[in-house]
User: Fold this.
Amino acid sequence: MLRGIKVKKEIPKPKSQEEEFPTKKKLRTEDEIILSNLHRQRIKEKGLDFEDIQDDEELGNKPKTKQQQRQELSRQNQAKGEQMFQQRKNARVLETCKYCIQNEQLGENYIISNGNNTVLLFSEKKIYQDYFHLLIIPIDHINSLNQVDDETYEEIRNYMKCLITCFDKQNLEVVFYENAYNFKNFPHAMLECVAFPALKDANIELYFKTGMDELDGFWSTHKKIIQIEKSKGGIRKQIPKGFPYFYVDFSLENGYAHVIEFERYFSVNFAREILATILKIDKNLVTHPPDRSSQEAALFKEKFKQIWDQYDWTNLLEKQK
Assistant:
Protein backbone atom coordinates (compact mmCIF):
# COMPACT_ATOMS: atom_id res chain seq x y z
CA MET A 1 0.00 0.00 0.00
CA LEU A 2 1.31 3.50 -0.82
CA ARG A 3 1.97 5.69 2.19
CA GLY A 4 0.06 8.93 2.47
CA ILE A 5 -2.69 7.81 0.14
CA LYS A 6 -5.98 6.69 1.61
CA VAL A 7 -7.61 3.81 -0.16
CA LYS A 8 -11.37 3.54 0.12
CA LYS A 9 -12.32 0.07 1.22
CA GLU A 10 -15.41 -1.22 -0.52
CA ILE A 11 -17.77 -3.19 1.67
CA PRO A 12 -19.63 -5.89 -0.28
CA LYS A 13 -23.34 -5.21 -0.53
CA PRO A 14 -25.37 -7.88 1.32
CA LYS A 15 -27.39 -10.12 -0.92
CA SER A 16 -31.13 -9.91 -0.82
CA GLN A 17 -33.22 -12.85 0.34
CA GLU A 18 -34.23 -13.51 -3.26
CA GLU A 19 -30.58 -13.59 -4.41
CA GLU A 20 -29.52 -15.66 -1.41
CA PHE A 21 -32.33 -18.22 -1.78
CA PRO A 22 -33.46 -18.18 -5.43
CA THR A 23 -34.68 -21.76 -5.27
CA LYS A 24 -36.91 -21.01 -2.29
CA LYS A 25 -38.55 -18.14 -4.16
CA LYS A 26 -39.09 -20.35 -7.19
CA LEU A 27 -40.72 -23.06 -5.10
CA ARG A 28 -42.98 -20.56 -3.40
CA THR A 29 -44.05 -19.17 -6.77
CA GLU A 30 -44.85 -22.64 -8.06
CA ASP A 31 -46.96 -23.35 -4.96
CA GLU A 32 -48.86 -20.13 -5.56
CA ILE A 33 -49.50 -21.15 -9.15
CA ILE A 34 -50.85 -24.56 -8.05
CA LEU A 35 -53.16 -22.96 -5.49
CA SER A 36 -54.29 -20.39 -8.04
CA ASN A 37 -55.11 -23.11 -10.56
CA LEU A 38 -57.05 -25.07 -7.95
CA HIS A 39 -58.92 -21.90 -7.00
CA ARG A 40 -59.78 -21.24 -10.65
CA GLN A 41 -60.93 -24.83 -11.14
CA ARG A 42 -63.36 -24.57 -8.23
CA ILE A 43 -64.64 -21.21 -9.50
CA LYS A 44 -65.19 -22.74 -12.92
CA GLU A 45 -67.26 -25.51 -11.32
CA LYS A 46 -69.51 -22.80 -9.86
CA GLY A 47 -70.18 -21.42 -13.32
CA LEU A 48 -68.28 -18.13 -13.03
CA ASP A 49 -66.04 -16.60 -15.69
CA PHE A 50 -62.30 -16.29 -15.26
CA GLU A 51 -62.45 -12.85 -16.90
CA ASP A 52 -64.35 -11.58 -13.87
CA ILE A 53 -61.62 -12.78 -11.50
CA GLN A 54 -58.35 -11.00 -10.90
CA ASP A 55 -55.56 -11.73 -8.49
CA ASP A 56 -55.08 -9.34 -5.58
CA GLU A 57 -51.64 -8.47 -6.89
CA GLU A 58 -53.14 -7.38 -10.21
CA LEU A 59 -55.80 -5.22 -8.56
CA GLY A 60 -53.53 -3.61 -5.96
CA ASN A 61 -55.09 -0.38 -4.69
CA LYS A 62 -56.68 0.46 -8.02
CA PRO A 63 -60.31 1.57 -7.46
CA LYS A 64 -62.95 -0.71 -8.94
CA THR A 65 -65.01 0.44 -11.86
CA LYS A 66 -68.81 0.55 -11.62
CA GLN A 67 -68.98 -2.55 -13.79
CA GLN A 68 -66.65 -4.40 -11.43
CA GLN A 69 -68.69 -3.25 -8.43
CA ARG A 70 -71.90 -4.52 -10.06
CA GLN A 71 -70.23 -7.84 -10.88
CA GLU A 72 -68.96 -8.22 -7.32
CA LEU A 73 -72.40 -7.40 -5.88
CA SER A 74 -73.97 -9.90 -8.26
CA ARG A 75 -71.53 -12.60 -7.16
CA GLN A 76 -72.19 -11.83 -3.48
CA ASN A 77 -75.95 -12.06 -3.99
CA GLN A 78 -75.53 -15.30 -5.90
CA ALA A 79 -73.35 -16.73 -3.11
CA LYS A 80 -75.92 -15.73 -0.47
CA GLY A 81 -78.71 -17.32 -2.50
CA GLU A 82 -76.74 -20.53 -2.92
CA GLN A 83 -75.96 -20.59 0.80
CA MET A 84 -79.62 -20.16 1.77
CA PHE A 85 -80.66 -22.82 -0.73
CA GLN A 86 -78.06 -25.25 0.68
CA GLN A 87 -79.19 -24.55 4.26
CA ARG A 88 -82.81 -25.31 3.38
CA LYS A 89 -81.72 -28.43 1.50
CA ASN A 90 -79.63 -29.62 4.45
CA ALA A 91 -82.55 -29.04 6.82
CA ARG A 92 -84.79 -31.24 4.65
CA VAL A 93 -82.11 -33.94 4.58
CA LEU A 94 -81.81 -33.90 8.38
CA GLU A 95 -85.57 -34.30 8.75
CA THR A 96 -85.72 -37.32 6.46
CA CYS A 97 -82.33 -39.04 6.97
CA LYS A 98 -82.98 -42.66 7.93
CA TYR A 99 -79.56 -42.94 9.60
CA CYS A 100 -80.28 -40.12 12.04
CA ILE A 101 -81.48 -42.11 15.04
CA GLN A 102 -83.73 -39.29 16.30
CA ASN A 103 -85.88 -39.66 13.16
CA GLU A 104 -86.77 -43.21 14.27
CA GLN A 105 -86.89 -44.56 10.75
CA LEU A 106 -84.77 -47.62 11.52
CA GLY A 107 -86.48 -50.54 13.22
CA GLU A 108 -84.96 -52.05 16.36
CA ASN A 109 -84.15 -55.23 14.44
CA TYR A 110 -81.52 -53.32 12.44
CA ILE A 111 -79.81 -51.74 15.46
CA ILE A 112 -77.17 -53.95 17.08
CA SER A 113 -75.59 -51.67 19.70
CA ASN A 114 -75.31 -48.01 20.67
CA GLY A 115 -72.32 -46.04 21.86
CA ASN A 116 -72.41 -42.47 23.11
CA ASN A 117 -71.59 -41.08 19.67
CA THR A 118 -71.91 -44.04 17.28
CA VAL A 119 -74.24 -46.89 16.35
CA LEU A 120 -73.66 -50.35 14.88
CA LEU A 121 -76.35 -51.39 12.37
CA PHE A 122 -77.30 -54.10 9.93
CA SER A 123 -77.65 -53.02 6.33
CA GLU A 124 -81.25 -52.81 5.12
CA LYS A 125 -80.12 -54.27 1.80
CA LYS A 126 -78.93 -57.82 1.22
CA ILE A 127 -75.97 -56.62 -0.81
CA TYR A 128 -73.69 -59.53 0.05
CA GLN A 129 -76.39 -62.17 0.42
CA ASP A 130 -75.80 -64.19 3.61
CA TYR A 131 -72.43 -62.65 4.49
CA PHE A 132 -72.32 -60.29 7.46
CA HIS A 133 -72.70 -56.68 6.30
CA LEU A 134 -72.66 -54.08 9.07
CA LEU A 135 -72.62 -50.27 9.22
CA ILE A 136 -70.80 -48.10 11.76
CA ILE A 137 -72.31 -44.62 11.73
CA PRO A 138 -71.89 -41.46 13.83
CA ILE A 139 -75.05 -40.40 15.65
CA ASP A 140 -74.54 -36.79 14.54
CA HIS A 141 -75.21 -36.13 10.86
CA ILE A 142 -71.64 -35.78 9.56
CA ASN A 143 -70.62 -36.12 5.91
CA SER A 144 -67.44 -38.21 6.27
CA LEU A 145 -65.31 -39.95 8.87
CA ASN A 146 -62.42 -37.50 8.51
CA GLN A 147 -64.77 -34.80 9.89
CA VAL A 148 -65.73 -36.51 13.16
CA ASP A 149 -64.41 -35.37 16.55
CA ASP A 150 -61.95 -37.28 18.74
CA GLU A 151 -64.57 -39.08 20.86
CA THR A 152 -66.56 -40.26 17.85
CA TYR A 153 -63.43 -41.42 16.05
CA GLU A 154 -62.33 -43.37 19.13
CA GLU A 155 -65.71 -45.15 19.26
CA ILE A 156 -65.47 -46.04 15.57
CA ARG A 157 -62.02 -47.52 16.24
CA ASN A 158 -63.45 -49.47 19.19
CA TYR A 159 -66.10 -51.04 16.97
CA MET A 160 -63.49 -51.91 14.34
CA LYS A 161 -61.20 -53.56 16.91
CA CYS A 162 -64.02 -55.58 18.45
CA LEU A 163 -65.40 -56.68 15.07
CA ILE A 164 -61.96 -57.82 13.91
CA THR A 165 -61.48 -59.87 17.09
CA CYS A 166 -65.01 -61.28 16.94
CA PHE A 167 -64.79 -62.38 13.31
CA ASP A 168 -61.25 -63.67 13.67
CA LYS A 169 -62.51 -66.17 16.27
CA GLN A 170 -64.97 -67.37 13.62
CA ASN A 171 -62.18 -67.65 11.01
CA LEU A 172 -63.70 -64.78 9.04
CA GLU A 173 -61.87 -61.99 7.24
CA VAL A 174 -63.04 -58.38 7.52
CA VAL A 175 -62.99 -55.45 5.09
CA PHE A 176 -64.01 -51.92 6.11
CA TYR A 177 -64.69 -49.27 3.49
CA GLU A 178 -66.16 -45.78 3.14
CA ASN A 179 -67.54 -43.94 0.12
CA ALA A 180 -67.10 -40.28 1.11
CA TYR A 181 -68.33 -38.11 -1.75
CA ASN A 182 -71.32 -36.20 -3.16
CA PHE A 183 -71.15 -33.78 -0.23
CA LYS A 184 -73.50 -31.32 -1.94
CA ASN A 185 -76.31 -33.76 -1.08
CA PHE A 186 -75.30 -33.73 2.61
CA PRO A 187 -74.92 -37.52 3.10
CA HIS A 188 -74.68 -39.29 6.46
CA ALA A 189 -71.22 -40.79 6.93
CA MET A 190 -70.90 -44.54 7.36
CA LEU A 191 -68.14 -47.11 7.55
CA GLU A 192 -69.27 -50.39 6.01
CA CYS A 193 -67.99 -53.73 7.30
CA VAL A 194 -68.14 -57.01 5.37
CA ALA A 195 -67.07 -60.34 6.89
CA PHE A 196 -66.59 -63.58 4.94
CA PRO A 197 -64.69 -66.88 5.23
CA ALA A 198 -60.92 -66.50 5.09
CA LEU A 199 -59.66 -66.83 1.53
CA LYS A 200 -56.25 -68.44 1.06
CA ASP A 201 -55.80 -67.83 -2.65
CA ALA A 202 -57.28 -64.32 -3.01
CA ASN A 203 -55.10 -61.27 -2.38
CA ILE A 204 -57.86 -58.90 -1.29
CA GLU A 205 -55.54 -55.91 -0.86
CA LEU A 206 -54.24 -56.34 -4.39
CA TYR A 207 -57.79 -56.35 -5.80
CA PHE A 208 -58.56 -53.03 -4.12
CA LYS A 209 -55.20 -51.41 -4.89
CA THR A 210 -55.54 -52.33 -8.56
CA GLY A 211 -59.07 -50.91 -8.70
CA MET A 212 -58.06 -47.70 -6.89
CA ASP A 213 -55.10 -47.24 -9.21
CA GLU A 214 -57.50 -47.12 -12.15
CA LEU A 215 -59.86 -44.57 -10.56
CA ASP A 216 -60.04 -41.14 -12.27
CA GLY A 217 -57.99 -42.44 -15.19
CA PHE A 218 -54.97 -40.81 -16.82
CA TRP A 219 -55.87 -37.22 -15.95
CA SER A 220 -55.71 -37.63 -12.17
CA THR A 221 -53.35 -35.10 -10.53
CA HIS A 222 -53.53 -36.50 -6.99
CA LYS A 223 -51.52 -39.44 -5.75
CA LYS A 224 -53.37 -42.59 -6.80
CA ILE A 225 -53.17 -44.45 -3.50
CA ILE A 226 -52.49 -43.01 -0.05
CA GLN A 227 -51.46 -45.47 2.63
CA ILE A 228 -53.42 -44.68 5.78
CA GLU A 229 -51.31 -45.03 8.91
CA LYS A 230 -52.28 -44.60 12.55
CA SER A 231 -48.92 -42.97 13.29
CA LYS A 232 -49.80 -40.21 10.80
CA GLY A 233 -53.20 -39.52 12.32
CA GLY A 234 -55.23 -41.91 10.16
CA ILE A 235 -57.96 -40.88 7.74
CA ARG A 236 -58.74 -37.67 9.68
CA LYS A 237 -55.25 -36.23 9.24
CA GLN A 238 -54.12 -37.71 5.92
CA ILE A 239 -57.15 -36.67 3.82
CA PRO A 240 -57.99 -32.92 3.90
CA LYS A 241 -61.50 -32.11 5.11
CA GLY A 242 -63.91 -31.36 2.29
CA PHE A 243 -62.15 -33.59 -0.24
CA PRO A 244 -64.17 -36.56 -1.54
CA TYR A 245 -62.40 -39.89 -1.12
CA PHE A 246 -62.68 -43.67 -1.03
CA TYR A 247 -61.20 -45.45 1.98
CA VAL A 248 -60.61 -49.15 2.65
CA ASP A 249 -59.10 -50.82 5.71
CA PHE A 250 -58.28 -54.47 6.36
CA SER A 251 -56.98 -54.74 9.90
CA LEU A 252 -56.55 -51.27 11.46
CA GLU A 253 -52.90 -51.63 10.52
CA ASN A 254 -53.18 -51.55 6.74
CA GLY A 255 -55.50 -49.07 5.05
CA TYR A 256 -55.59 -47.17 1.77
CA ALA A 257 -57.43 -44.12 0.46
CA HIS A 258 -57.89 -42.36 -2.86
CA VAL A 259 -58.97 -38.74 -3.36
CA ILE A 260 -61.83 -38.70 -5.88
CA GLU A 261 -61.21 -35.95 -8.42
CA PHE A 262 -64.08 -36.65 -10.84
CA GLU A 263 -67.11 -37.57 -8.75
CA ARG A 264 -69.34 -38.10 -11.77
CA TYR A 265 -67.20 -41.09 -12.72
CA PHE A 266 -67.12 -42.66 -9.25
CA SER A 267 -69.75 -45.28 -8.45
CA VAL A 268 -71.16 -46.30 -5.09
CA ASN A 269 -70.75 -49.85 -6.41
CA PHE A 270 -66.95 -49.60 -6.65
CA ALA A 271 -66.20 -51.66 -3.52
CA ARG A 272 -69.29 -53.83 -4.03
CA GLU A 273 -68.16 -55.01 -7.44
CA ILE A 274 -64.65 -55.79 -6.19
CA LEU A 275 -66.05 -57.84 -3.30
CA ALA A 276 -68.52 -59.52 -5.65
CA THR A 277 -65.59 -60.67 -7.77
CA ILE A 278 -63.70 -61.95 -4.73
CA LEU A 279 -66.72 -63.70 -3.20
CA LYS A 280 -68.02 -64.92 -6.59
CA ILE A 281 -71.38 -63.20 -6.22
CA ASP A 282 -73.45 -62.14 -9.21
CA LYS A 283 -72.68 -58.42 -9.70
CA ASN A 284 -76.31 -57.69 -10.48
CA LEU A 285 -77.17 -58.75 -6.94
CA VAL A 286 -74.73 -56.29 -5.35
CA THR A 287 -75.59 -53.38 -7.66
CA HIS A 288 -79.37 -53.97 -7.36
CA PRO A 289 -79.73 -55.72 -3.99
CA PRO A 290 -83.07 -56.85 -2.58
CA ASP A 291 -84.38 -55.40 0.68
CA ARG A 292 -83.88 -57.18 3.98
CA SER A 293 -87.24 -57.58 5.70
CA SER A 294 -87.67 -56.82 9.38
CA GLN A 295 -88.20 -60.53 10.08
CA GLU A 296 -84.97 -61.43 8.24
CA ALA A 297 -83.13 -58.73 10.14
CA ALA A 298 -84.43 -60.10 13.46
CA LEU A 299 -83.14 -63.60 12.64
CA PHE A 300 -79.82 -62.21 11.40
CA LYS A 301 -79.47 -60.07 14.53
CA GLU A 302 -80.10 -63.03 16.81
CA LYS A 303 -77.53 -65.11 14.94
CA PHE A 304 -74.94 -62.33 15.05
CA LYS A 305 -75.39 -61.42 18.72
CA GLN A 306 -74.52 -65.01 19.69
CA ILE A 307 -70.95 -64.37 18.56
CA TRP A 308 -70.86 -60.61 19.17
CA ASP A 309 -72.12 -59.90 22.68
CA GLN A 310 -68.95 -60.98 24.49
CA TYR A 311 -66.86 -58.60 22.33
CA ASP A 312 -69.24 -55.62 22.28
CA TRP A 313 -67.33 -52.75 23.87
CA THR A 314 -70.57 -50.87 24.63
CA ASN A 315 -71.23 -53.38 27.45
CA LEU A 316 -68.70 -51.35 29.45
CA LEU A 317 -70.86 -48.27 29.04
CA GLU A 318 -73.82 -50.11 30.54
CA LYS A 319 -71.74 -51.14 33.57
CA GLN A 320 -70.62 -47.54 34.10
CA LYS A 321 -74.20 -46.26 34.37
User: Anything to note?
Assistant: The first helix runs from residue 17 to 20. The chain is about 40% helix and 15% strand. Strands lie at 111-114, 118-122, 132-138, 172-180, 191-197, 226-228, 245-249, 255-259.
